[in-house]
Write a structure and sequence with these properties.
- The protein is an all-alpha fold.
- The protein is built from 9 helices and 2 strands.
- The chain has helices at residues 3-6, 10-13, 17-24, 33-68, 98-109, 112-144, 154-161, 169-180, 187-190; strands spanning 84-85, 94-95.
- The chain has a two-stranded antiparallel ribbon with strand order 1-2.
- A hairpin with an 8-residue loop joins strand 1 and strand 2 (94-95).
- It is globular, with a radius of gyration of 29 Å.
- The two termini are 13 Å apart.
Length: 206
């Protein structure tokens, strides 16, 4: 199998971080650098999802354990004070119509809390997305150091890599500068392997 075929398999997503780093360090990889980044990004998303599922199962198991240890509380048929209003003369209880009145007012003027609730939900979604990106960046920090971003076309850097949010802006800026003018990067940095294309020998991954 070629490198491009291997990085698209399910087995690739199950690699350990150490083994993935070893693969990405290889000079024998036979794939475009953008394909390697996308495969690595898919690996990171997969690892993140596995962690979330394991955490959810652990939380569900813990909740079941607590629930089984509690005694069930009998439900009485008595009406709450919000549903019944006592007669001032000590007669039969009178139904509380305040709830119906409130519903009528809401139907006419609308609930003032609906918009704020929708705004809060949207804000929470955005916050959750930021947390996911921050977590994913942390999970992929080590493996991303072996991706040779200067070998990815500038358009792909801006339109594909940057929107993922996992690559530091400084890293992308340096890669774009190198693509525009290799001499803009200090020679002491340019001798590092990450600035050079991979030879891509046809053999094994290692």
């Amino acid at each position: 199998m070629t490198t491009k075929e291997i990085i698209l398999t399910e087995e690739f997503l199950e690699l350990t971080e150490a083994l993935l780093c070893k693969i990405l360090q290889s000079e024998k990889l036979e794939a475009q650098e953008l394909d390697l980044f996308l495969a690595t990004y898919a690996w990171g998303k997969h690892q993140q999802q596995k962690f979330k599922e394991a955490k959810s199962k652990k939380r569900a198991s813990s909740s079941e354990g607590r629930s089984s240890g509690r005694a069930s509380t009998p439900i009485t048929s008595e009406q709450s004070s919000d549903q019944v209003v006592k007669s001032p003369e000590g007669g039969s209880p009178m139904p509380d119509l305040r709830g119906d009145a409130r519903e009528s007012v809401v139907a006419v003027v609308g609930s003032p809390s609906r918009k704020s609730a929708a705004d809060s939900e949207e804000a929470e979604k955005r916050a959750a997305m930021r947390r996911d990106i921050k977590d994913l960046r942390w999970r992929m920090h080590r493996v991303l150091t072996y991706i040779r971003f200067p070998q990815i076309p500038a358009r792909a850097l801006m339109q594909i890599v940057y929107p993922t949010g996992v690559v530091p802006t400084k890293e992308l800026f340096q890669a774009a500068c190198f693509l525009a003018d290799p001499n803009s990067i200090d020679i002491s940095q340019r001798i590092e392997s990450r600035w050079a294309p991979r030879p891509g020998k046809r053999s094994t991954l290692f």
